[in-house]
Design goal:
This protein folds into two domains: about 10-265, Carbamate kinase; about 275-360, Archaeosine Trna-guanine Transglycosylase, Chain: A, domain 4 (Roll), CATH 2.30.130.10. Helices cover about 35% and strands about 20% of the residues. The protein is of the alpha/beta class and about 375 residues long. The longest helix is centred in the N-terminal third of the chain and has 24 residues, at about 70-95. The protein has an eight-stranded mixed β-sheet, with helices on both faces. The chain has helices at about 15-20, 25-40, 55-60, 70-95, 105-110, 110-125, 155-160, 200-205, 215-230, 245-250, 265-275, 285-290, 330-335, 340-345; strands at about 10-15, 20, 25, 45-50, 100-105, 130-135, 165-170, 195, 235-240, 255-260, 280, 300-305, 315, 320-325, 360. The chain is built from 14 helices and 15 strands.
Length: about 375
């Protein structure tokens, strides 16, 4: 369970609250993390860093307490991001390690082509023995900042899933997952290992985290669910513990380890983690068919919600996601009809199924 001796590829996510200090980056902490990661690199391991903190650093430069709207947060991110990278570069330069900046938006991960391009880029950087440092591109993100990735918790899990990482280490000001809120209950106890993320566990999650951060326990549990689909173990731990990364790799019982439940293919993970463009509502017979790895046929379609094109990722009720072969307008015309009628209505070049089994991923497993 905590034997990481064969762990080759590691993603380390560092939260805002432990990376910043006195309205700026905690340079001493960055140096300590760089030293720990360099120790991993010396053993032949590969490491990707997910680094929060840009907005907080930008606020510090502006001598502002809080960014009250999205435009201000975007401006703070633009000011803080180069300062953050400068600290990482300087800290790793002591060991002769090259770092690379990669900024992402949710749109990059939702588009299959850019998703694969990102994967190839990170793979190349790792082959060059560089350390990719990723962050949400807050200054241009079209989503409300923090809503897309939750202080990079979700981003770290998506990246770990994308690059087939063996381990995701989430460093935070949160010690572990507790059986109840430790800020409210003195008898709250840490949970050393989680084998299944149940409804009870989800209910223990609180709201937002730190002053400048946008993550909390809920986003971390959601991140654990994403990473587990890639067969990736996750360790949530207090990032301020001495030599925390080295101790985790050594198998010390620190924080909470989340064990994976299933391992999906890379394409299936992309489908599962993409934002749906709409919803196709299907009947019970069609749902039973896709559970048995059968294609979704238009005869099982009841109705369609949203406007989307063929090739889009959509919800199937609230139980699955799929890549649809037909657009929303085509589906509305074909809902409930037999497959033989598709080519009569749409023409001979159209496929006679809505989605094939390889393009359907169940959510409730």
């Amino acid at each position: 369970m905590r034997d990481f001796s064969k762990t080759k590829r590691i993603v380390v996510k560092i939260g805002t609250n432990i990376l910043t200090k006195n309205a700026g980056v905690d340079a001493a902490y960055v140096r300590r993390i760089a030293a720990q990661i360099n120790s991993l690199l010396k053993t032949g391991r590969q490491v990707v860093i997910i680094s929060s903190g840009a907005i907080g650093m930008g606020l510090g430069q502006l001598d502002a307490e809080k960014a009250r709207d999205i435009k201000m947060r975007q401006a703070c991110a633009a000011i803080g991001q180069p300062l953050l990278m400068a600290e990482w570069r300087k800290s790793f330069l002591r060991y002769g390690v090259t770092v690379a900046q990669v900024l992402l938006t949710a749109e990059v991960l939702n588009n299959r082509k850019t998703y694969l391009n990102l994967r190839n880029s990170i793979e190349t950087l790792l082959e060059l023995s560089a350390v990719p440092i990723l962050n949400e591109n807050d200054s241009v993100s079209t989503d409300e900042i923090g809503s897309a990735f939750g202080d990079n918790d979700k981003l770290s899990a998506l990246v770990a899933s994308k690059i087939d990482a063996d381990l995701l280490i989430m460093l935070s000001d949160i010690d572990a997952l507790y059986d109840k809120n430790p800020r409210k209950f003195a008898d709250a106890r840490p949970i050393p290992a989680v084998f299944e993320i149940t409804d009870d566990i989800m209910r223990t999650a609180g709201g937002k985290g730190s002053k400048h951060g946008t993550g909390g326990m809920k986003t971390k549990i959601e991140a654990a669910k994403i990473a587990s689909n890639a067969g990736c173990r996750i360790v949530l731990a207090n990032g301020r513990l001495k030599n925390v990364i080295g101790r985790i790799i050594a198998g010390e019982e620190i924080g909470t380890v989340f064990m994976p439940k299933r391992k999906l293919s890379n394409r299936a993970r992309w489908i599962l983690n993409s934002s749906p463009a709409g919803t196709i509502f299907i009947d019970d017979g069609a749902m039973a068919a896709i559970r048995n790895r059968k294609s979704l046929l238009p005869s099982g379609v009841v109705s369609v919600q949203g406007a989307f094109e063929a090739g889009s990722v959509v919800m199937l009720n609230d139980r699955a996601k799929a890549v649809t072969n037909l657009s929303s307008s085509q589906l509305k015309a074909l809902a409930g009809k037999h497959s033989s009628e598709i080519r009569k209505i749409l023409g001979p070049k159209h496929r006679d199924v809505v989605a094939i089994p390889e393009d359907i991923v169940m959510i409730d497993y």
